[in-house]
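ingest -> validate -> predict -> emit
validate: passed (alphabet ok, no gaps, 143 aa)
predict: started
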Amino acid sequence: MPSVRKEFRWEMGHRLPDHPLCKNVHGHSYRAVVEVWGEIGPDGMVIDFGEIMQLAEPIRSALDHAFALSPDDLAMREFLQKNDLKACELPFLTTAENLAGWMAKSFAAKLQGRNLSKVKVTVFETPSSAATAEQSLVSDQSV
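emit:
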């Protein structure tokens, strides 16, 4: 089955409060690759690259030049609020694995009900370190 891929980038700070090294405030130049599988439609495309970017833009905009934090990181939340800094609170620890899963679910929710079968998101924290998550776009009719 054919697929298309589109990439987007953002700069983001974060920390993992209970990790021995990553508990320190730091950031990455992130890159995400979104891949969508499906049948080629009458327009000759699986999905338009521009549509993938439109779906990605709210995510990229929320994360870009922000500090991502988990709900239990009260010290960072207080610091960011006190200093009027851009924060993006996410409902999970801000690992590449969790970011990829969150993004894949977000894309899947917006792509359901079309002639598409799967979406995969790979989040690169560094050029050599990435995490991937997939979501099926096919409803299970064997219930």
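The helical segments are 49-63, 74-82, 96-111.
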